[in-house]
Protein backbone atom coordinates (compact mmCIF):
# COMPACT_ATOMS: atom_id res chain seq x y z
CA UNK A 1 0.00 0.00 0.00
CA UNK A 2 1.29 3.40 -0.92
CA UNK A 3 4.30 1.78 -2.55
CA UNK A 4 5.14 3.25 -5.93
CA UNK A 5 7.95 1.53 -7.73
CA UNK A 6 9.35 1.77 -11.19
CA UNK A 7 11.02 -1.08 -13.03
CA UNK A 8 14.34 -1.78 -11.26
CA UNK A 9 17.41 -1.13 -13.39
CA UNK A 10 20.72 -2.49 -12.17
CA UNK A 11 23.90 -0.75 -13.23
CA UNK A 12 26.77 -2.90 -14.37
CA UNK A 13 28.79 -4.67 -11.61
CA UNK A 14 26.46 -3.45 -8.88
CA UNK A 15 24.89 -5.94 -6.51
CA UNK A 16 22.56 -3.29 -5.13
CA UNK A 17 21.22 -0.17 -6.78
CA UNK A 18 19.20 2.35 -4.82
CA UNK A 19 17.22 5.29 -6.09
CA UNK A 20 14.79 6.46 -3.45
CA UNK A 21 12.75 9.51 -4.39
CA UNK A 22 11.14 9.52 -0.99
CA UNK A 23 10.22 7.03 1.71
CA UNK A 24 8.39 7.13 5.01
CA UNK A 25 6.07 5.48 7.45
CA UNK A 26 2.69 6.41 5.96
CA UNK A 27 1.50 7.39 2.49
CA UNK A 28 3.08 10.72 1.54
CA UNK A 29 5.43 10.73 4.57
CA UNK A 30 8.87 11.75 3.23
CA UNK A 31 11.36 10.99 6.02
CA UNK A 32 14.12 10.46 3.47
CA UNK A 33 14.39 12.08 0.05
CA UNK A 34 16.54 11.78 -3.07
CA UNK A 35 18.90 9.04 -1.98
CA UNK A 36 20.84 7.44 -4.82
CA UNK A 37 23.81 5.13 -4.57
CA UNK A 38 24.98 1.67 -5.50
CA UNK A 39 26.97 -1.14 -3.91
CA UNK A 40 29.42 -2.95 -6.18
CA UNK A 41 30.53 -6.54 -5.86
CA UNK A 42 33.20 -6.61 -3.12
CA UNK A 43 32.51 -3.05 -2.04
CA UNK A 44 31.76 -1.81 1.47
CA UNK A 45 29.50 1.22 1.60
CA UNK A 46 29.04 3.07 4.88
CA UNK A 47 25.72 4.78 5.56
CA UNK A 48 26.40 7.38 8.21
CA UNK A 49 24.68 10.35 9.77
CA UNK A 50 23.46 11.68 13.11
CA UNK A 51 20.60 10.22 15.16
CA UNK A 52 17.36 10.64 13.27
CA UNK A 53 19.09 11.41 9.93
CA UNK A 54 17.25 8.57 8.16
CA UNK A 55 19.72 5.66 8.06
CA UNK A 56 17.32 3.01 9.40
CA UNK A 57 14.51 4.42 7.27
CA UNK A 58 16.73 4.05 4.20
CA UNK A 59 17.52 0.43 5.12
CA UNK A 60 13.83 -0.29 5.75
CA UNK A 61 13.00 1.28 2.37
CA UNK A 62 15.59 -0.95 0.66
CA UNK A 63 14.11 -4.01 2.38
CA UNK A 64 10.57 -2.79 1.64
CA UNK A 65 9.66 -2.93 5.32
CA UNK A 66 7.88 0.43 5.35
CA UNK A 67 4.65 1.37 3.62
CA UNK A 68 5.77 4.35 1.57
CA UNK A 69 8.67 3.88 -0.84
CA UNK A 70 8.79 5.82 -4.08
CA UNK A 71 11.77 4.91 -6.25
CA UNK A 72 13.69 1.92 -7.50
CA UNK A 73 15.62 -0.73 -5.61
CA UNK A 74 17.42 -3.40 -7.62
CA UNK A 75 19.47 -6.37 -6.41
CA UNK A 76 21.91 -8.21 -8.62
CA UNK A 77 23.28 -11.75 -8.72
CA UNK A 78 20.85 -14.29 -7.37
CA UNK A 79 19.16 -11.54 -5.33
CA UNK A 80 20.14 -13.09 -2.00
CA UNK A 81 20.75 -10.73 0.89
CA UNK A 82 21.30 -10.97 4.62
CA UNK A 83 19.95 -8.26 6.88
CA UNK A 84 21.56 -8.00 10.30
CA UNK A 85 19.35 -5.72 12.40
CA UNK A 86 20.62 -3.45 15.15
CA UNK A 87 18.28 -5.01 17.70
CA UNK A 88 18.66 -8.81 17.88
CA UNK A 89 15.55 -10.70 16.75
CA UNK A 90 15.27 -14.25 18.06
CA UNK A 91 13.06 -17.03 19.37
CA UNK A 92 13.19 -17.34 23.19
CA UNK A 93 12.73 -21.11 23.09
CA UNK A 94 15.39 -21.96 20.49
CA UNK A 95 19.08 -22.44 21.26
CA UNK A 96 21.85 -20.88 19.20
CA UNK A 97 22.34 -24.14 17.27
CA UNK A 98 18.58 -24.40 16.68
CA UNK A 99 18.54 -20.84 15.31
CA UNK A 100 21.35 -21.75 12.93
CA UNK A 101 19.54 -24.98 11.91
CA UNK A 102 16.33 -23.08 11.26
CA UNK A 103 18.16 -20.55 9.10
CA UNK A 104 20.02 -23.36 7.26
CA UNK A 105 16.70 -25.07 6.51
CA UNK A 106 15.11 -21.79 5.43
CA UNK A 107 18.05 -21.18 3.07
CA UNK A 108 17.66 -24.74 1.72
CA UNK A 109 21.19 -25.76 2.76
CA UNK A 110 22.22 -29.37 2.43
CA UNK A 111 22.75 -30.98 5.89
CA UNK A 112 26.52 -31.62 5.64
CA UNK A 113 27.26 -28.19 4.16
CA UNK A 114 25.14 -26.58 6.86
CA UNK A 115 26.95 -28.42 9.67
CA UNK A 116 30.35 -27.52 8.28
CA UNK A 117 29.49 -23.83 7.91
CA UNK A 118 27.68 -23.59 11.24
CA UNK A 119 30.55 -25.29 13.15
CA UNK A 120 33.06 -22.99 11.47
CA UNK A 121 31.04 -19.91 12.37
CA UNK A 122 30.74 -21.06 16.00
CA UNK A 123 34.51 -21.37 16.14
CA UNK A 124 35.27 -18.11 14.38
CA UNK A 125 32.95 -16.15 16.64
CA UNK A 126 34.23 -18.06 19.71
CA UNK A 127 30.70 -19.24 20.42
CA UNK A 128 31.15 -23.03 20.45
CA UNK A 129 30.46 -23.14 24.21
CA UNK A 130 27.21 -21.21 23.66
CA UNK A 131 25.96 -23.66 21.03
CA UNK A 132 23.16 -25.03 23.23
CA UNK A 133 22.34 -21.79 25.05
CA UNK A 134 19.02 -19.99 24.77
CA UNK A 135 19.32 -16.33 23.72
CA UNK A 136 17.73 -15.17 27.00
CA UNK A 137 20.85 -16.42 28.79
CA UNK A 138 23.27 -14.66 26.45
CA UNK A 139 25.01 -11.32 26.84
CA UNK A 140 24.26 -8.41 24.47
CA UNK A 141 27.41 -9.08 22.44
CA UNK A 142 26.65 -12.82 22.20
CA UNK A 143 23.18 -12.04 20.84
CA UNK A 144 24.78 -9.68 18.33
CA UNK A 145 27.21 -12.41 17.29
CA UNK A 146 24.29 -14.82 16.84
CA UNK A 147 22.63 -12.33 14.43
CA UNK A 148 25.89 -11.95 12.49
CA UNK A 149 26.35 -15.73 12.29
CA UNK A 150 22.82 -16.13 10.88
CA UNK A 151 23.74 -13.63 8.16
CA UNK A 152 27.12 -15.17 7.34
CA UNK A 153 25.59 -18.68 7.11
CA UNK A 154 23.74 -17.73 3.92
CA UNK A 155 26.75 -16.35 2.02
CA UNK A 156 24.51 -13.87 0.21
CA UNK A 157 25.29 -11.42 -2.61
CA UNK A 158 24.57 -8.47 -0.34
CA UNK A 159 24.96 -7.85 3.39
CA UNK A 160 22.91 -5.07 4.96
CA UNK A 161 24.23 -4.57 8.45
CA UNK A 162 22.77 -2.06 10.90
CA UNK A 163 25.29 -0.88 13.51
CA UNK A 164 27.31 -4.05 14.11
CA UNK A 165 29.98 -2.61 16.42
CA UNK A 166 28.16 -1.38 19.49
CA UNK A 167 27.79 -4.70 21.36
CA UNK A 168 30.99 -6.37 20.15
CA UNK A 169 34.22 -6.53 22.16
CA UNK A 170 37.47 -5.69 20.31
CA UNK A 171 38.30 -9.31 19.51
CA UNK A 172 34.77 -10.01 18.24
CA UNK A 173 34.98 -6.83 16.14
CA UNK A 174 38.22 -8.09 14.59
CA UNK A 175 36.70 -11.58 13.98
CA UNK A 176 33.70 -9.96 12.32
CA UNK A 177 35.81 -7.65 10.14
CA UNK A 178 38.01 -10.55 8.99
CA UNK A 179 35.00 -12.58 7.98
CA UNK A 180 33.48 -9.58 6.22
CA UNK A 181 36.75 -9.11 4.31
CA UNK A 182 36.65 -12.74 3.15
CA UNK A 183 33.07 -12.34 2.04
CA UNK A 184 33.97 -9.22 0.07
CA UNK A 185 36.78 -11.13 -1.62
CA UNK A 186 34.18 -13.75 -2.57
CA UNK A 187 32.27 -10.90 -4.25
CA UNK A 188 29.63 -9.93 -1.70
CA UNK A 189 28.73 -6.26 -1.42
CA UNK A 190 28.10 -4.68 1.98
CA UNK A 191 25.96 -1.77 3.09
CA UNK A 192 26.68 -0.88 6.70
CA UNK A 193 25.12 1.71 8.99
CA UNK A 194 27.38 2.84 11.79
CA UNK A 195 28.20 5.61 14.23
CA UNK A 196 31.71 4.26 14.79
CA UNK A 197 33.37 6.70 12.41
CA UNK A 198 37.02 5.85 12.98
CA UNK A 199 36.35 2.22 12.03
CA UNK A 200 34.10 3.29 9.13
CA UNK A 201 36.85 5.56 7.79
CA UNK A 202 39.33 2.65 7.83
CA UNK A 203 37.14 0.00 6.21
CA UNK A 204 34.60 1.65 3.89
CA UNK A 205 35.29 2.24 0.19
CA UNK A 206 32.41 4.66 -0.20
CA UNK A 207 30.32 6.77 2.16
CA UNK A 208 26.77 8.05 2.02
CA UNK A 209 26.42 10.79 4.59
CA UNK A 210 22.82 11.55 5.50
CA UNK A 211 21.56 14.62 7.28
CA UNK A 212 17.94 15.44 7.94
CA UNK A 213 16.65 12.81 5.51
CA UNK A 214 18.84 13.94 2.61
CA UNK A 215 22.28 13.14 1.23
CA UNK A 216 24.75 15.71 2.55
CA UNK A 217 27.71 14.11 0.75
CA UNK A 218 28.65 10.85 -0.92
CA UNK A 219 31.75 9.34 -2.40
CA UNK A 220 35.11 8.06 -1.26
CA UNK A 221 37.02 9.84 1.51
CA UNK A 222 38.59 12.29 -0.98
CA UNK A 223 35.14 13.27 -2.28
CA UNK A 224 33.73 13.61 1.24
CA UNK A 225 36.64 15.91 2.16
CA UNK A 226 36.06 17.95 -0.98
CA UNK A 227 32.33 18.36 -0.27
CA UNK A 228 33.01 19.36 3.33
CA UNK A 229 35.78 21.78 2.33
CA UNK A 230 38.14 20.12 4.83
CA UNK A 231 41.11 18.95 2.79
CA UNK A 232 42.84 17.44 5.84
CA UNK A 233 39.73 16.42 7.78
CA UNK A 234 38.99 12.94 9.07
CA UNK A 235 35.52 11.44 8.73
CA UNK A 236 34.44 12.85 12.08
CA UNK A 237 35.47 16.40 11.06
CA UNK A 238 33.59 16.07 7.77
CA UNK A 239 30.58 14.61 9.58
CA UNK A 240 30.51 17.63 11.88
CA UNK A 241 30.86 20.08 9.03
CA UNK A 242 28.22 18.48 6.83
CA UNK A 243 25.43 17.43 9.21
CA UNK A 244 22.92 19.37 11.28
N1 LIG B 1 8.36 3.76 13.06
C1 LIG B 1 8.41 5.07 12.75
N2 LIG B 1 7.27 5.78 12.51
C2 LIG B 1 7.32 7.10 12.19
N3 LIG B 1 8.46 7.81 12.07
C3 LIG B 1 9.62 7.16 12.31
C4 LIG B 1 9.66 5.77 12.66
N4 LIG B 1 10.97 5.41 12.83
C5 LIG B 1 11.71 6.53 12.60
N5 LIG B 1 10.89 7.57 12.30
C6 LIG B 1 11.32 8.94 11.95
O1 LIG B 1 12.09 8.92 10.77
C7 LIG B 1 13.18 9.86 10.85
C8 LIG B 1 14.48 9.15 10.58
O2 LIG B 1 14.69 8.17 11.60
P1 LIG B 1 15.69 6.93 11.45
O3 LIG B 1 15.32 5.90 12.46
O4 LIG B 1 15.75 6.51 10.02
O5 LIG B 1 17.08 7.64 11.84
P2 LIG B 1 18.54 7.00 11.99
O6 LIG B 1 19.44 7.81 11.11
O7 LIG B 1 18.52 5.54 11.78
O8 LIG B 1 18.87 7.37 13.51
P3 LIG B 1 19.70 6.60 14.69
O9 LIG B 1 21.14 6.93 14.45
O10 LIG B 1 19.18 7.26 15.90
O11 LIG B 1 19.37 5.14 14.61
C9 LIG B 1 13.10 10.50 12.24
O12 LIG B 1 12.42 11.74 12.08
C10 LIG B 1 12.24 9.54 13.03
O13 LIG B 1 11.48 10.23 14.00
Automatic annotation (TrEMBL):
Cite the PROSITE patterns for this sequence: ABC_TRANSPORTER_2
Can you name one GO molecular function term for this protein? ATP binding
The record ties this protein, via InterPro entries, to: AAA+_ATPase, ABC_transporter-like_ATP-bd, ABC_Transporter_VariousFunc, P-loop_NTPase
List each copy of the ABC transporter domain by range: 13-237
| Keywords noted in UniProt | ATP-binding, Nucleotide-binding, Transport
Keyword Nucleotide-binding belongs to the record = yes
> What is the name of the protein in this document?
ABC transporter ATP-binding protein
**From which organism does this entry originate?**
Saccharibacillus alkalitolerans
Amino acid sequence: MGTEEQEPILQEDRVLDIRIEEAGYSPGDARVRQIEFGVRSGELVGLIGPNGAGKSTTIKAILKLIPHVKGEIAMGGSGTYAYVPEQPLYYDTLTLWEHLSLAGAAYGMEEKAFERSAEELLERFRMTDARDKLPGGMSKGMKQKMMLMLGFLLKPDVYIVDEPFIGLDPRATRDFLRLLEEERKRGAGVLMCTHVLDTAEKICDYFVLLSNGETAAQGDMAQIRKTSGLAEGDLFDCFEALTV
